[in-house]
Amino acid sequence: MPKNEPIKQHYIPRSYLKNFGVEGKNGNYFVDAYKLEDEFLLEYISTKSICFKKNLYTIPNAEVDKKYALELHYAEHVDSEFPKIYALLVDEKTIVLTPEQKRQVLYVCLSLYFRTPKVLNHQNAFTDQILDRMLLYADANGDVKFSFEEEKYEFNKKDIDKVRHEFKERNRLKFIVNHLERWKEFVDFKYDCTINVHQINDANAPLITCDNPLSIRGMNSTRFEGLFNPDSVITLPLDTKYYLEIFPNNIADGQTRINRMVHDRDYVFTTNAIIQSNAEKLIIGKPGTIERHFEIQSSYEEDDNAERFVEKAKFKLEEMQKFHKLCETSGFPSEKATAQLKTMLAHEHFKNENQLLQLKRLLIVLGKWK
């Protein structure tokens, strides 16, 4: 096999994982990884050794110059592009993107949802269950006959390992084709979104990531409510300090604007909880940050802290919902929306909300802030 055949294929780019690691020798980066199934912490391991699967994107029965086309596409158009996208998003001086930059942000970041093997793993588990059940109906000779997805299958139970492999290869081919189509379609669908970048102001409350870092959930819930739900919120930790958020544009502040906000430990608590719930097998972070994550989670389980957090989160959500509703019904700017904005900014829970402060400055320029 030629040395340049890339059979070890990372579904989470190393150019992304390095932002949660420390640099070692020869440009290698090292992270801590917590195995959820074993509840075991792997310390200081290379990003080369995690979040990959052999031949995940290799196209079967293709010529050598084509069989690795998808892996090479990811390497050229996503993995090598991520550092540029990351630099744009965490640069606090960057307020407005060009249309081309915005599309590239979406193309690169949304790929982290479609290219992971989560859906493929679920499909493989499903077909394994079907095959296990069909084995129970083998005849006296061990022959198995059944229909699945409008196709008929016949095999002898002694060949089950070969049949399982064939099913998994079929599932993998569907994954390759379907995720590319849905990826492009989803980028087009989300182009009119709002892009927010959140900065954490507490150095002792670091963000973590995982082997399935991009989360899609309903705006008012932590549940997946459909890929093309127009009200879905998409989130992605960018490093230990910055967090990307994508959702529909409810306030007319310009389609290519980046809204920048500052958050505290409460935000890290909820954000890291979402990351952990979204993980398939691994939680990933800079050395020492995963232990810190669990310490923060434990502290919020204490009665006083839990009650305070819930009250604060409930208050902020209700006030923001009031503001968004007024913007939709009365318009922005309007007297009612402006009054609600003043009420929020006067409260200590909103004192570091840069997005609200930017709206205040906009209203001052427009002569609407009195």
Description:
The protein has 370 residues and is of the alpha+beta class. It has a domain at 303-370. 46% of the residues lie in helices and 19% in strands. The protein is built from 12 helices and 14 strands. The chain has helices spanning 14-17, 64-67, 69-79, 82-90, 99-114, 118-135, 160-190, 265-278, 289-300, 303-329, 335-345, 354-365, and strands at residues 8-10, 22-23, 29-35, 40-46, 52-54, 143-148, 151-156, 193-200, 209-210, 215-218, 232-237, 242-248, 258-263, 282-285. Strands 2, 3, 4, 9 and 14 form a 5-stranded antiparallel β-sheet that branches. α5 (99-114) runs antiparallel to α7 (160-190) and α11 (335-345) crosses α12 (354-365). It is elongated and about 85 Å long. It starts with 7 loop residues before the first strand and ends in a 5-residue tail after the last helix. The model has no long low-confidence stretch (mean pLDDT 88).
Features:
single chain, elongated, DUF4238, 370 residues, 12 helices, DUF4238 domain-containing protein, alpha+beta, five-stranded mixed sheet, five-stranded antiparallel sheet
Put the structure in a nutshell.
The protein is an alpha+beta fold. It is 46% helix and 19% strand. The mean pLDDT is 88.
